[in-house]
Amino acid sequence: MSRRILSLWLPRFSADLSLRRRPAPGPFALVVKARGADRLACLNAEAQARGLAPDMGLADARALCPDLLTRPADPRGDAQALGSLRRWALRYCPWAAVEGTDGLVLDITGAAHLMGGEALLLEDLTARLARMGFETRAAIADTRGAAWAVAHFGRGGVVPAGATERALLPLPLAALRLEPATVEGLTRLGLRAIRDLTALPRAGLVRRFGTEPTMRLDQALGALPEPVSPAPDPPNYAVRLSLPEPIGLTSDIMAGLERLLARLCDHLRAAEMGARRLALELTRTDGTILRQELGLARAMRDPAPMAQLYTRMLDGMDAGFGIDRMRLVALQTEALPVQQITTSGAKAEGDLADLLTRLCNRVGFENVTRFQPADSHIPEKAFQIAAAAYCDPPPHWPQGGPPRPLVMFPPEPIAGTGRAVPRRFKWRGRWWAVVAASGPERISPEWWLDDPAWRTGLRDYWQVQTDRGARLWLFHTPQRDGWYIQGEFA
Questions:
Q1: Which of 47, 231, 329, 360 has the maximal Cβ count within 10 Å?
Q2: Cβ atoms within 10 A of the Cβ of 450, count?
């Protein structure tokens, strides 16, 4: 049986996906930052009809189409959606793989008759995708290269078995999936179609352009094999327990959970992985499912502490007429290789991670934060706030340099002119007298970033001791001759 390959091209996949999630009328395009400017990445048919094209600058596009609606592109989300579409395409055949960023390839050898033939399979596939909101071009041929070429540069459809060469020869050279530089070099020699390439001596072609043109040509014609090799699905770490009699006591559920955790952790340990998120599914006798998710601040595969974290979540749970099936799934995992056992700070680090786990499960993983150092000499940019559960504590903070106030706030103006520190000023409804002052520390704005707060230019910072005991952080802007307060020391 000869192989039959289906190539599916989604020419506007990113734009169609965005519009499927949030419909919008009129011309539409996704925008990316490239070569120092915003450029169009993917656009719908109406935007293309207005004369817009991918890689066009956004400013030029708006000049041609003032009512253009844009959104930022999301390559990671598009890749995830394409992976989901690949799994959906397994309904047609057991072998499906992602091809590029906007296509799929399916090996339908021996599977087309289940849909009534290749033509009906192709019609069903494109019709279902059209109902989902995706524009498609698809072709079926004897080889992967031929199917791709007919889908992208031909009319699509079904190429009969044995007619690969007849379908390929009139197509342009780009249909062989050659690099743009190679296509340009061949075009300069007067070669326009694949038919022209087959007439050239191979030795001279390889000496000048390498093996890529001949390899792609042989793959498209079937002289070289090109199998469909989908990426393996990630391993699924899940265990279940079927009970002979329904249970309802919390102690019995915990006993079953401990057995599940022990088995799950054995699987994780064998793969040198650790769980970051767990889901416990309890099936009641009436068929309803209770689901309890647990997030972990660090990767774990130790059953005892993981069971303790579930204790509070199971208290007061309504088991109904009893639970007869339990299932535990590791929803999120990460690598956890074997480490050398030490006593220097290991216990304290684990205790902190367990505390974060308890706090995050109560108030939310995004609401427990920690400070991280940032590479900037601007005081308010020298740190950043990150979720504590998703980042490691900094090994050390930069040492040295002038001290920084304990409390910082947006600059608040005070009366005063000149470079000398004002001896007396009014701030927040009170009069303050300066007892001592040290400085200045000159800080210049980051010229490569446009920060509205620093458009006044450089600043001269002073530490001043007031008669009320407070130590304040003042700065003077020579360009505008003004004084401000930005912080308070401990």
A1: 47
A2: 9
